[in-house]
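Predict the assembly for these three chains.
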Amino acid sequence: MTHNGLRFQVASKWQDSFRRFNQREPGISGLIAFSQAWDTATEFLKPRNINEPLPPREYTEAVRAALDVIHKSRRLPTLIETFLSQVESQFYLIQQEIDQFMIDYALDLDVCVISTMILRIHEWMKQWTPATELGSAFQTVYINFFQTHLFSILPDSFSSAFQDFVASTLPPEEEGEAQKQDPQIWFTFDALGLNDRFDSLIASVGYEHIERHVLETCTGQWGEPMLTPTRDWMTTKIVPWMLYVYGRNARTAEEARAILAGVGSRFDFHMAKTLCDLRTREIFDIIIDFPDSTGALQDLKECLQRVDQRAALVQSLRQAHRKRLLHPGADTKLILSQYVATIKCLRIIDPPGVLLFKVADPIRRYLRDRPDTIRSIVANLVGDDDSGDALVDETEPPRPLQAADIEDYSDPNWEPEPIDAGPDFRANKPSDIISTLVSIYDSKDFFVKELQVLLAQRLLAAGDDQSDKVEKERRNIEILKIRFGEAALQVCEVMLKDMTDSKRIDQHIQSQQASVIHPAIISKHFWPALESSEIVMPGQLKELQDQYMAEFTKFKPDKKLRWLTHLGTVNVELELEDRVIEALVSPLEAAVIELFSEQSEWTLDGISKRLGLPQPNILSKAISTWLDLGVLAPAGEGVYRVLEVSADQGAEAKDHVSRPATTVEVEMPPVVSVQQQQAEQMRVYWKFIEGMLTNLGALPLDRIQTMLKFAPGYDRTITQLAGFMEAARREDLVTVRDGMWKLNK
Amino acid sequence: MKVKIKQWNAVAQWRWDTGNKDAADDEEGDVCGICRVPFEGCCPSCKVPGDDCPLIWGECSHVFHMHCLLKWIGTAASKQQCPMDRRPWATAERRVDANAPPTT
Amino acid sequence: MEQLTSSLAPPRSNNKSNVAGTPQPAAGSVAKRLSNELMTLMMSSSPGISAFPRNDGNLFDWVGTIEGPAETIYVGLTFRISIAFPPNYPYVAPTIKFETPCYHPNVDINSGAICLDILQDKWSAVYSVQTILISLQSLLGEPNNASPLNPDAASLWDNPEAFKMQVTKHYRPLKDESA
């Protein structure tokens, strides 16, 4: 049964097909007609070799009739399939040509070869296109098939060749060497589907072009903003190109604008990013060049608003600082001026100060650890910087130091902190440079002390007439008072007053009894600690001191003087048998030579005993000064004597030798090391901790920290304190329970 | 050889001549017992040391910043006595600078 | 120039110069003196006496601690006192009270007020926290029974065992010591 059923089904199917092919014609005449029609249609559609001269295809009545027959037999799909397989079998023709073109191109890289090739492929495609009469569906199927097949046979080398070609369509930088390409070629690309296929490649050609342009025109060009000129260049050079590439199918200007808006924004972003990356790489040198690099900073500011590269900028700058600035070879002054320039530059780029905060932190920490930072800042403040490179603009009016801002909750202008601000970021209200520098340290007292030292050096570095100098210093101090406050600089006031008072006193004393000694009489507690010296002046030097002292006591009966004999300068004139020598020397050197006027030969021991110096080695510098001047000569082990007649006999007797003031390095007890100082400080702090725990009972760490403010100069962080307390705990001095520290009794 | 000193720019500190122990020339100097500031400094109400903030000597030989002592003598609690030995205060004549104003 | 540089002692180690220097308004100069006294007190090691400001930022209110001296009835006991400095210190004496109840002829057991001549009519501007603390410490062993604030204690003084019992009865150990 089953068998019969199947047979019946097959038979009936066959009958159906047969009737359809036969078109219900008598006998098999219909079948024959269909066969003829099929032949006509396939012949008409057959993809031909366009290299062979053939008559043009004509959509004749016969063809139409044949297609009609096929249509009626519902065999059109089969016809299409047959056609496509013919196309496929003919594709080798195209491939042959492509291979040849690519060989040609590889020879001389002439992009014309590529355009010719593409036009040629297009020819093939057009040639094989089914007649429009067959309907658009037929064509669409064909085009898709053709394109797919084309892409599958394009060799790997094609993409780079195509890239070269696209690049050649870009407008050249120079007007002259234009390599004109027919913009119509883009339509051909469309037809072949190359635009869609190579979309990202085409864009990358544009990007690379922009990158090249930016690097060529903007690298090292920091004086003027380059963003606008580059945008102008994009408008004149890139936009017209983009019109062909992306906007060629637009029918109206409106439509073109809409198409270009999206792609244009991508290109603009890429340009901004390229410039931003460039400036980020250059940032360290841009800062060095400031203020000649303001243009570059403007660029960076605008680019950063467009492209989020802030983190990269911070990283680049920090890295550059680490490599190029914060190393032992760099001069502190240089680090300071680069820091100041960084402050100024980053304020332009990022007014809220987040970037600055992140970049400045390592510099500030580094500077804090440098021993001469304060001195450099202060030297600069008082204009004592020989580099002449003031950190502060003269034009910037001095302002009081600004304390670190405390959040003001009632501030109507409050703004939330920028999104990339870290938790320890303190909103940087515009504060002046000096405040920023001073805030490297926790206390301004350091600065005032340093200022005092510097002022002492400058005031005591003698000159004949000091009044001008004192006046200049007074003006300096007046300015600094605005910054540091009147009270902090009171000591400096007294120092200046000492100088003017000394002059007045000296005038009075000189009027009573003229003397060659002119002392600066200073108020001990208002000057930096000056080491006292024990030198006992000999001979006429002592007499000069005593006479002056006597007159002084007459003038100021309730006061006496204490000579600081290692400070100051003495102008001496030595009369020898054959010459006169004049020299400006230290009091110690004067004392030594004075002894030689008493007797012509001295031992080192003798001199140091006579001058009351505990260590004779201090003398060696003073002795060598006179040896250098040819006044003394060695006469045995540790013995020296006067050269009354110059040893330099051949030369003419020099009757006048002037030499500049020597710098006498009186050997001082070794400076207390930082560690020793810190240990000493910690001892004091421990006493305070002991005191507070004794009287206030157990305390938490933060309370100890705040109470330690009563200890003079306390500047440790709570972390340092925690370490210190932990050490004390290990020594069984304290115990801690639930965060409360108490003394161990 | 003859040495001639043509000019000497020297540096010296001034000290009050408090009359005690010249020889020792004590390093730190004495402080005023009332304000605990060294004599060569100035009392808390002054800004400039020296002639503007002079010392005052008592006949009991105790010395203070003049301003500090006068302020003390001005309080009822002082009973006009020297703060050191509580003997009636009497200023020693010889030490006071004749030119100094008697009060602030 | 360099001779001076080298002869300047390490600039930061020395703060003597500033002690004399910076002028202050009245309250400032008192605070300065108090901070000076605090430093002196911390660095001197007087056994059994100590004091420290109660709160940060206020130098006029201190807490003191006095240990009962050896060979007195108060040995082994620790007393807390409050010290309030007037704005015109040292021309006027600070106000001092026992915070720990102290059974003593010259101390009011309820208010903690102290009867000590140098804190009243014998005050002198040259006294300091340290001299006061030392006087108080010696007052514990040597009361002035002539002018008692606590007449019971004064009359009991000659009976050390009974006196000691009263002392112990009133005494309250310091809070953090018992913890």
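The radius of gyration of chain B is 17 Å. The first helix of chain B runs from residue 66 to 73.
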